[in-house]
Amino acid sequence: MGRRNIEANPLTDLCGDYLVRIEDALKRELDSYSWSEFHAPLRYACDGGKRIRPLILVLSAEAIKGKKANGDAYLAASAIELLHTESIIHDDIIDEEHTRRGKPSFHVKYGYNSSILTADFVLGVILFIGSKLKNPRVLNELSNAATRMSEGEMMEIRLNKAPAITEDDYIKVLDYKTASLFETSAKIGAILGEGTEEQIHAMTTFGHMLGIAYQIHDDLIDWNDEDKLFNMLVKQNDRSKDFIDRMEKLYQSYAAKAKDELLKVAPANNEVIRHLELMTDLASVQI
C-alpha cells in the first residue's frame, strides 16, 4: 500500500481479497508482454501502487450486481490501473519528481526517452484490454478519462505560470486531473454491474466527489513539501490557519457528498456499499 497508509488500515483488512485478485489480474496482463523490452519497466512502474481506483471499479460492480465481480471487471480494473500508471510516468517528468513510492521515479531509473516510449506502450496495452472487453461504452469511458486527465495536466502547467490562481482554478484542475479517473472507475464498475442509468449516475457522482476529496486531503498533507498549485493558494492566503481549516472542511464536504450518493445505489446495509463508504473516511483509512 501507499507511503502514508497506517499499519492497520481498515480498508486493507476488509478488501484484502479484492486487492489480491486485482494484483493477479494486472500481473496476468503485464506478463502477456513478457517477450517485450517494456515488460520489466512496466512491472517497475506498476509496483507498489495502492490500487484504489481499480478497487473502486470492482466494488462498484459488485455493489450494484449483488454478486461477485466477474473477470471483465478485473480486466477493466487492470486498464484503470495502467492508465493511472501512464499518467504517473508523465507527471513525474513534468513535476521533476525524483522519487515515487519510496524508490526512484520512472524517468530517473529508465531515462526520459524510455519513459515517453513506455507511456505510449501502456496506452497500446489499454486499447487492447478495451478490445477484449467488447463493450464500446467502457472503451469510451477510458478514452474520456485519458482525455480529461491530459487536459487537467495542461491546465496545471498553465496555472503554474500564472501570477495568481483562484480556488475555482484549483478545483477545476482536480476535477480533470484526479477526479476524472476516480469517476471513470466507479462508472465503469456500475456499467459492468448492469446498473440502471440512475445507479450509474449516482456511482459516477460518488467517484467524482471522492476524487476531489482525495486530492484536497492529499494536498493538505503534503503542501509544505511540494511546490504545486495548492501551495500557491496557501501562499496567497498568507499561510493562514483559517485557509487550511477552510480547505479541510471543503474536503470533508466532498467526502460527505460522495457518501450520500452511495445510498442512491443500494441500501446502507449492503456490505460492499459499506466498503465504499469507508473510502470516504480519508482521515481514517488514508487511501
TrEMBL record:
Keywords: Magnesium, Metal-binding, Transferase. Its EC number is 2.5.1.90. PROSITE patterns: POLYPRENYL_SYNTHASE_1, POLYPRENYL_SYNTHASE_2. Its cofactor is Mg(2+). One of its GO terms (molecular function) is metal ion binding. One of its GO terms (biological process) is isoprenoid biosynthetic process. Belongs to the FPP/GGPP synthase family. This is Geranylgeranyl pyrophosphate synthase.
